[in-house]
Amino acid sequence: MDREQARQALEGVDALAAGMRAKARSRAWLAFGLGVAAAVILVVFGVLVPQPASYAITGVGIVPLMTLVIYTATRPVVPRHYRTLYALCTTTGALLYSVVVTVGSAVFPGSLAWWLPGALVTAVPFFLVGYLDLRATRRQP
To answer: What's the pTM value of the predicted model, to 2 decimals?
Structure first.
């Protein structure tokens, strides 16, 4: 291999690495967006929607969680341990969401003092995954 071929190969690798870092950043912003969506849905669910109608829209809150599961499962290549990380994030988010909705519907219907902190706690797993994604992209050369 001569110098010109080696230079072209290195340029190709650099371009590929830049593309992978950009995709990793987009994964991080997707995780942040899902966290915000989960929090907003919970606040709307608990405070703004009357009690009988709120039971009909419970499934809407699961949409961000399922989006993350489907997105992760359909990626042909993801970094090491990401499927496990996303599975833990989704499980934790679903568990927190279930606790907040169940307790809030029974004990604190319409109370912003319950639903707002509950929404923020439910968003934490998504924010953690987003933070870890951003941190990983900054560590790469």
So the answer is: 0.70
